[in-house]
Amino acid sequence: MSEKKQIPLRLKKELYDALCAWAEDDFRSVNSQIEYLLTECVRQRKKNGKYVSEHLDEPPEINIE
Questions:
Q1: ∠ CA(25), CA(28), CA(30), 5° rounding?
Q2: What is the pLDDT of residue 10?
Q3: Using an 8 Å Cβ cutoff, are 19 and 34 in contact?
Q4: pLDDT at position 43, please?
Q5: CA within 13 Å, CB half, 2
Q6: How far is Cα 43 from Cα 40, in angstroms, rounded to an integer?
Q7: DSSP the chain
Q8: pLDDT confidence of residue 34
Q9: How far apart are CA 40 and CA 46, in angstroms?
């Protein structure tokens, strides 16, 4: 089992509430949801070498040629 680090994290109430609702929809704790989302962001960055969109509500641009 991999070692887990504990870090303090401060979130705006609105963001926490949104994450809480999302986590509930996905049957996860808020902590697990945050870890899942961060893992997916890191995986995506490693995959294409780019950061996640600056506008999280907008899908990333995909060039299909």
A1: 100
A2: 93
A3: yes
A4: 83
A5: 2
A6: 5
A7: ------------HHHHHHHHHHHHHTT--HHHHHHHHHHHHHHHHHHHS-PPPSSTTSPPP----
A8: 94
A9: 10
- The tens digit of pLDDT for each residue in 2-59 reads 788 999 999 999 999 999 999 999 999 999 999 999 988 888 877 776 665 556 555 5
The pLDDT assigned to 40 comes to 87
- Token pair of 61 as six digits: 């641009």
Residue type, 43: R
The answer to whether residues 33 and 23 touch, using CB atoms and an 8 Å cutoff, is yes
Q: How far apart are CA 33 and CA 17, in angstroms?
A: 12
